[in-house]
């Protein structure tokens, strides 16, 4: 929402891109909050250069790194909604064998990142 995870993702992408024959691609998950709420929260505009991912696009990836902020010791609702949309992929085992990882961000030390993981 505020760009912290995006900044981490950009740094991770640099590392991924540094591996010969590998290219990282940034995506964002669909926003669940209305424009009005985002404005009231003073959230900056999203980078139009980062497309919104769909669950189906995960199957095309060779591997994935998920980044999400911590909200009261849990992942943000936007990530939860996205993961909830991937049920068919799991049912059909379309992600089986793909390397995956994640990273989290929170605003304070001990702010929930350990329980989010």
TrEMBL record:
EC number(s) on file: 1.6.5.2
PROSITE patterns: FLAVODOXIN_LIKE (PS50902)
Enzyme type, top EC level: oxidoreductase
Top-rank taxon, per record: Eukaryota
Any one GO CC term of the record: membrane
GO terms, molecular function: FMN binding; NAD(P)H dehydrogenase (quinone) activity
The Flavodoxin-like domain, residue ranges: 1-117
Record-linked Gene3D superfamilies: 3.40.50.360
Catalyzed reactions: a quinone + NADH + H(+) = a quinol + NAD(+); a quinone + NADPH + H(+) = a quinol + NADP(+)
Cofactor(s) the protein requires to work: FMN
Family: Belongs to the WrbA family.
Record protein name field: NAD(P)H dehydrogenase (quinone)
Organism: Arachis hypogaea
